[in-house]
Write the C-alpha cells for this entry.
Amino acid sequence: MAINIDCLVKLRLSSIKNKIAEAIKTGEARAGKSKIKSPYVGEWETALAFFPERMELVALITKGGKEVKQKIEVIEEDSNLRNGSKVYYFFCRGYKCRTLYSDGTGFYPRAAFRHIYGKQKQSRKEREIAYMAEPFRAYGKETYRGRLTPYGKRLQRYKEYETRVCNSFLKFISKYQKTGKR
C-alpha cells in the first residue's frame, strides 16, 4: 500500500534552525530526543544531534528494537533577504531541501518517495495554475435552485483569479510606463 506523503512525520528545518545557528556560533554540539507515534507507520524513537564543525545532523532511529544511524549534511548559503543572513538546507540523498519526511526507517526528501502522485511534487502555485486551466463546460450550470454548484464555485474562483492577475499586470505596466524605461 502506498503511503500518502502528507501523512508522514516531517522534520522541518524551520523548527530547528535557531538551535543550528546557536550551535554554529558557540561551536558546541546540540542534541534532542523524541518519541513519535504515527497512526500510519507506527511508533519509533528519534535522537537528533547537530555537530557544527562538520555541519552534520546525525539521526539515530530506533523502531522495533532495530537502530538505524543516518547522517544528514546541513548546507549554509547566503540569503537574498539581508546582507550577512544565512539560509540552511538539508542535503540528503542528493537533494537540497528544507523538509525531510520519515516513515520510521530514516529521513528522506520529498522527491525520494517514488510512489507519490505528480500533483504532490508540484508547488502550490503550479497546482493553482493547473487547477485554474479551463473550468468552462458546454452544459455546466453555475447555480441550481439559487445555490452555487461546485462548477459555479470553480468558475467564480477562476474569474477572481483572472481579474487579480490582470490587475497586477496592469499595475506593473503603469509603473513601467511612469518610469519611462524602454
Residues 27 and 103 are 31 Å apart (CA to CA). The first strand starts at residue 9 and ends at 12. The longest helix spans residues 150-179.
